[in-house]
Structures are given as structure tokens and as C-alpha cells.
């Protein structure tokens, strides 16, 4: 096992897959995952945390790998019963999944913080890495679009990402704080890994929490910040990332994502960048941003893919740390 | 079909069975059911109305006749998932049943009254009789016991009726009101039928809502008030009624229930009383209370039993109305 401190920033299924690969090749104390909570919302009186659940279900071996969300061996009887009564069934909540939301909501109502609830669930589910919500505060991602402002799940699930986006903001983020352990894990990290998640709505919300980007940028301790492109051959593996880039007037490409994280606005966050063989032609453009690059197969179809990519990324990070790139 | 206005007061499964029988022999406009809501409680953030659901599921053909509560063809995945996370699983909530509670809770939070929600659900479920909660106000039944005061479901489900009861009260009943339609249906009723439900915790709460007993007692319009004994041969068919009578120092018998409803405290509510052949020996005692009696087979094991008992009870009521008893 590799003795190295790694912190991964993750959104939904792409991030969850790479994190799963990492969890299988790193000692459990080595890995911390900071998860986007901008997608979280209240629905049917329940607090629902889609990215947190996607990551935890994946790490627990409970994930539905076909849908990319929800649980395996799921049933849908509660939602069917609710739909028969005319209730809102647009957000697909399976029965086993509902148990998670009911218990989380109950504990939050008792005064526990989301990070405490998450830690408890991870213990029950036998999840070895530290999984931290980016914040215990609610910071709902708002989508600005040609149809006006939409709450994220209204845009993402109810409207199926059809409105054309013009921007995003994270409501209340000015006064939000990172959840306990987030800043310490980042300050101790040797590799900070930005997973192949949606830059606009999965990673940007994490980086926007006051104090997170600052700790990543603080290089008093040697640290390599590496991103894995969620864009392969101009398309997102899953989700609306490429569509968002187009609507924002940006060519959706591996290089665009590298520019996104490497921009002035981000303070030149990245050291290294991992992207797919299919985009090898962009290597010069990306190295031109001052980034070390690793060109490999980034598509994770199987468990072996996840472990191989995780190994390659960590190996790349170690070489960067050793100054061998 | 019999053209007669009937209002039934019902609690859980015994009441639901007789109401189901009535619904099959009366025109839909003839029957109104007023259901106990003293058992209602908030659990896992959901408003749960056990008696209302038992009655509605029964009338809709959705009831689990084996358990006497919950829905048929039920699954338990949400509760299992919640229990795995350490959540409270003592109150058994099935997945299909959860859909009901989620939608009811959502509508109540939007400002609908329980009676409005119930009416909507009855329409969806194709329930012909008018089903009315006794009140739109929350009137939680409290059980006084040798272990102190217990919320009803804590006594009934969590503690499995083990504490010895010393009394009951209905919190907040002084300021509660009957739900819309309750008083009008009672004032128009020709037969008011007290179903074979627990007198202490299913029927007494209904009768204790200010304005309900008063309308029943108002005989300006000719009206017969008939109760069906929930006690057969000293035992309750289901539930703790007999145990409660014993603990309250009263012999659990058909006659005791007749005395209960016929007492001074109740204002001499009853005209007629229906009880089982097995208790025929108590007929003199019961007629001695000034009640007309019908001795028959009151145990409802089959659908035919429910319909037969319903027919006999209505026939008995008509004879009383006609002065033929």
C-alpha cells in the first residue's frame, strides 16, 4: 500500500468511481473525500444529499451501477404509492434509499451536523476512507438559465437539464464554513485530487466554500493538485458538463477544464492534469498552461478501470512530488 | 339497497371490518365513518394516522388482513435500511404505507387539513363512504400507567401494552373541534353505530371531542344509537381492551361495555346493543340497562361475516326506528 495523504474532491458518479478505485489501493487512513453538497435539497420533508449518497453507496458496495445513482436491489413501492395519491414522483426515491433519507433527516432534526451523520453512516456501512461533506451549512446551487433561476434539482432532474444555463451561484456561500476536518485534511494532503466530476456544479461549489481554496493554494507544505478531466472527446461521460460548457460559450474539451481550474480566478490551482488518450492532441495546449500531464485511458467501465486509473493518478502525483515529471 | 342515513364511529381493525361490511350493503351516500385520530403521532417527521389508514385501506381493498394494520403486498426495505443505520424501527412502516405518510405529511405541511387530505385519498382510492377524521386538531391520547404517562404508540407498539393502565386523557381536547361534516352527518343520522372498537382508546376519544356527544344525544330528530361489543367471552378479538378493563378494575364483558356507553357520564348514549351468542347469558343484565339487544355472531372472520353482521345491525336499527323491538 502507498503511504501518502490524499484528499479527493468529488461530486456524483464519476467522482465516486475514482474514489472507489482510490479506496482499494490506498491505506484507509490515507484517503479523505470531500463531497459536494450543493445538490442537497429538501423534498417530501426529507434532507436529500445526492452526491454524498452516491459516494457512500459506491464505497459501501451498495450503489446501483446501472443508473449511477441510488441503491442496488432497490424497490419503488413508497414512490409508487405516493404517485398514486398524486404526490410528486419526479425525484426518484427508492425504498432502501428512503431509509437513508429518513434516518438522516431524523438525526439532523435532533441537532446532529451533516458531517456527524455522514460519519455515523460510514461506520455502519463499513466505509474506510474519511468522507466529509464540504460544509455542514446548506449552500444550495442555483442555476441561472434562459428560463430564469432554478434550484439545482429542478434544473437537473425535473427539467432534465433542458434549460440553457447562463451561470451558477451558491446561495449563502459567503457565510458558510467547511465542515470539521476539511481544512485540516487539505493542509496535510500531499495530493489533492479533483475527481472527474462536473466542474461547474460539483467541484466549483466545493472550491467556493470560504477557506477551502485558500488551504489548497497554501503550498507551505509540499502538495500536488491534480485534476482528472470529466470531458472525453468533447463529451461528458455522464451528466450535463459538456452541454453547460457550450451554453457558457466555451468549447467543451479536456483543455477547457484544465483552463477552468488553472484560471486566474482559481488562483492557478493545478499542478497536474490527467486526460484521455482520445484528447492527446490537446497535450501541447494543456502543458502550455504550465501543467504536467498524464494521458491515459480515463473511462471507468469496470472495477479494474477504477483501480488502474487510481493507481496511475497516484503514481503521477508521487512523481510530481518527487520532481520526476 | 337500504335507504337510511348511517354514521359509524370507528377505531382500528374491528371498526374497519364492520364499516367494510356496511359499505357493501348501503348506498354510498348513506354511510359516513367518523374515525378516531387520538392514535395519530409524528414519527420520523411523518404524520401517521393508524386508525384512519386502517379504515381507508380496508375500504379500498388495500388492507393487510393478516396483520390487521398496514397494506397488503407490502415490502419493508425502507425500514430495513433505516434499522441498519440504527434508526428507530419499532413502529413498523412498510414501503407502500410510507408513500401514504409522505404524501399526507407533504399536504399537511402545505396547509391542507387532515379531513381534506383524507377526502383526497378516498377519492383516489375509490372509497365510496364519507370518511371523516374525528377532528382536524391534534388530540393525542395519553395513557396513564404504573410506569407513568405514555404517548399512545409508545404504550401500544413500543411497550406492547405491557404497562398497567390507570387512566387515559386526550391532550388538548378542550379546545378541539370536530372536523367539517362530523356534526352535520351526526345530526342527519338515523342510525349512529359505535363499531366494535376499543371503548377506552378508540371510541371515547371520538365522543370526547366537544360537540360530538352533544349532537348524538340530541334526539330532536329520531335517531338510534347502537353499539357492537368488542368483547366476546371476556376477551377482545384484537388489542388490549379486555386487559384495560381488568386493570381499571372492571370485569371485561359485553355488559361492561354496554354500561360504559350507557353510563351517566355518557349521558345514556345508547338505545341498542349488539353482542355475541357466547355472551347471551348477559342479556338480562344488558336489557336491565334499558337497552334493546341483538344477540348474534359478532366475530368477523370473513367478508361474508362482515356483510352479515352489517345487515343484522342495520336491520336491528331499522326495527328500533320503527319501534318494533
Uncertain spans of chain A: none
Number of beta-strand segments of chain A? 14
Order of helices and strands of chain A: EHEEEHHHHEEEHEHEHHEEEHHEHEH
Radius of gyration of chain A: 19 Å
| Main sheet properties of chain A | 7 strands, parallel
Tell me the strand order in the biggest sheet of chain A. Answer: 5-2-1-9-10-13-14
Mean pLDDT score of chain A:
95
Largest interface: A-B, 33 and 33 residues
Number of helix segments of chain A? 13
Alpha carbon gap, first and last residue of chain A: 22 Å
CATH topology of the domain at 6-40 and 128-159 and 166-321 in chain A: Rossmann fold
Specify the CATH class of the domain at 6-40 and 128-159 and 166-321 in chain A. Answer: Alpha Beta
Residue share in β-strands of chain A: 15-25%
Per CATH, the architecture of the domain at 6-40 and 128-159 and 166-321 in chain A is: 3-Layer(aba) Sandwich
Which oligomerization state do the chains in this entry correspond to?
homodimer
Shape of chain A: globular
- Secondary-structure-based class of chain A equals alpha/beta
Please tell me about this protein's structure.
- 2 copies of one chain form a homodimer.
- Chain A has 325 residues and is α/β, with parallel strands linked by helices.
- The first copy, chain A, has a domain of 223 residues: CofD-like domains (Rossmann fold, 3-Layer(aba) Sandwich).
- The first copy, chain A, has 13 helices and 14 strands.
- Chain A is globular, with a radius of gyration of 19 Å.
- Chain A starts with 5 loop residues before the first strand and ends with a helix.
Amino acid at each position: 500500500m502507498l503511504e501518502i495523504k490524499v484528499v479527493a474532491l468529488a461530486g456524483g458518479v464519476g467522482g465516486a468511481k475514482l474514489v472507489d478505485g482510490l479506496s482499494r489501493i490506498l491505506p484507509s487512513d490515507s484517503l479523505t473525500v470531500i463531497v459536494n453538497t450543493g445538490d442537497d435539497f429538501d423534498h417530501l420533508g426529507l434532507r436529500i444529499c445526492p452526491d454524498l449518497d452516491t459516494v457512500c453507496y459506491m464505497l459501501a458496495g451498495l450503489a446501483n451501477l446501472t443508473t449511477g445513482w441510488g441503491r442496488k436491489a432497490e424497490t419503488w413501492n413508497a414512490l409508487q404509492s405516493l404517485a398514486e395519491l398524486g404526490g410528486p414522483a419526479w425525484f426518484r426515491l427508492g425504498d432502501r434509499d428512503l431509509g437513508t433519507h429518513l434516518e438522516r433527516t431524523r438525526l439532523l432534526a435532533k441537532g446532529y451536523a451533516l458531517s456527524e451523520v455522514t460519519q455515523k453512516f460510514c461506520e455502519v456501512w463499513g466505509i474506510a476512507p474519511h468522507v466529509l461533506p464540504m460544509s455542514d451549512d446548506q449552500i444550495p446551487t442555483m442555476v441561472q438559465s434562459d428560463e430564469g433561476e432554478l434550484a439545482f434539482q429542478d434544473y437537473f432532474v425535473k427539467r432534465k437539464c433542458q434549460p440553457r444555463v447562463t451561470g451558477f451561484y451558491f446561495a449563502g456561500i459567503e457565510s458558510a464554513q467547511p465542515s470539521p476536518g476539511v481544512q485540516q485534511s487539505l493542509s496535510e494532503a500531499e495530493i489533492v485530487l479533483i475527481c472527474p466530476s462536473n466542474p461547474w456544479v460539483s467541484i466549483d461549489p466545493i472550491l467556493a466554500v470560504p477557506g477551502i481554496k485558500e488551504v489548497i493554494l497554501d503550498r507551505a507544505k509540499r502538495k500536488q493538485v491534480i485534476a482528472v478531466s470529466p470531458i472525453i472527446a468533447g463529451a461528458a461521460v455522464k451528466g450535463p458538463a459538456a452541454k453547460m460548457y457550450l451554453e457558457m460559450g466555451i468549447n467543451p474539451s479536456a483543455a477547457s477544464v484544465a483552463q477552468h481550474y488553472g484560471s486566474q480566478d482559481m488562483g492557478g490551482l493545478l499542478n497536474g492534469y490527467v486526460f484521455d488518450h482520445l484528447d492527446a492532441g490537446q497535450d501541447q495546449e494543456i502543458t502550455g498552461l504550465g501543467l504536467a500531464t498524464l494521458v491515459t485511458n480515463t473511462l471507468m467501465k469496470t472495477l479494474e478501470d477504477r483501480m488502474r486509473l487510481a493507481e496511475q493518478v497516484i503514481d503521477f502525483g508521487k512523481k510530481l512530488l518527487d520532481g520526476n515529471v
